[in-house]
């Protein structure tokens, strides 16, 4: 989970006059490749970030915050008549900085961009949003909160007027009806339909190296309330990577981002890490490592057509439907022979049954022995 940020406050000036003001909290969660696995690290924007590269113009402004060894986060603002809005959010991060990315196998500088949701801010007002806003791009999640920004400061003085974001708007209760309505029975929420099966693949060197088909549902607890959401594969973005020891599949829809990391111990593979971020008004993120799900032999695919329900953490559950996955050893872009979870479960029944039968047989032999011995002893006494 995120570490709480204490926030940063910056003033950008132009000709010695304040032209852009910002106060915000910003947290990052980044997944990156290590030598033998996928690492995930969470960190906050430090309070000593600098504003080099920030600039103000008549119709556009840019806030740029620099920190660490070559990292920067920037957001640009565009004026449109009597209002302005945010354009791209860009995060540049240097994987060679071990203080933020320990164990990274690459020293590349990465660049990700996404549009922000700050819109329709009236000129000469400050944009205020205390609620969390999750911005996700590739393998990066950025969480903004406690934001106060004025992108176009007039005459060097901040405005006292506020434009409040939609997430912070109070819910206005409806007026109570003067007519007493008959009580209606409470009905449970309508259960979700079976999620649509998505077909996903990852390529490396122009050939398919990972295959996965499944319907996916996420159950998560937030603020003591349980929620369930189906993953919609229509229009979803698919990212991933393949390696000898680990492979990764990242699925991104409008509502959530789900990342699966698989391990290979040369004989078997299994799902090792699950990282789930729910964007749709929830701001939920949960990561769990050291899992041992979907295990089967290298050179085979894992299949489970029945619904599987896996409790990942106290806050997160994973439901899969019509599952088939092969993260290693894909040949000619098709699944290898599948090991079915039902057949795997039944394979344990035979040795268990044989073992029980042997125990019963041994007990019968032992009991028969003692009964026969007692009879022989009784016969011996009678012969005297």
Structural commentary:
The chain is mostly beta strands and 384 residues long. The protein has two domains: 161 residues, Beta Barrel (Porin), CATH 2.40.160.110; 144 residues, Porin (Beta Barrel), CATH 2.40.160.110. Helices cover 11% and strands 49% of the residues. The longest helix is centred in the C-terminal third of the chain and has 42 residues.
Kindly summarize this structure in a few lines.
The chain has 1 helix and 26 strands.
The residue fraction in helices comes out at 10-25%
In the CATH scheme, the class of the largest domain would be Mainly Beta
**Gross CATH architecture of the largest domain:** Beta Barrel
Q: Which descriptor suits the 3D outline?
A: elongated
Q: Say what the CATH topology of the largest domain is.
A: Porin
Family: Belongs to the LAMP family.
Subcellular location: Endosome membrane; Lysosome membrane
Biased composition (Pro residues): 185-194
Keywords: Disulfide bond, Endosome, Glycoprotein, Lysosome, Membrane, Signal, Transmembrane, Transmembrane helix
Offer a few descriptive terms.
384 residues; mainly beta; Porin; 2 domains; seven-stranded mixed beta sheet; 1 helix; 49% strand; disordered N terminus; signal; disulfide bond; Lamp2-like_TM
Write the layout of secondary structure elements.
Blueprint: E1 8-14, E2 17-33, E3 38-44, E4 55-56, E5 60-67, E6 71-80, E7 83-94, E8 109-115, E9 121-122, E10 126-129, E11 133-137, E12 140-150, E13 162-164, E14 198-204, E15 207-222, E16 225-230, E17 237-242, E18 246-252, E19 256-264, E20 268-278, E21 284-288, E22 293-297, E23 301-304, E24 308-311, E25 316-326, E26 338-340, H1 341-382
Parallel strand pairs: 10-13, 23-26
Antiparallel strand pairs: 1-2, 2-3, 2-12, 4-5, 5-6, 6-7, 7-8, 7-9, 10-12, 11-12, 14-15, 15-16, 15-25, 17-18, 18-19, 19-20, 20-21, 20-22, 23-25, 24-25
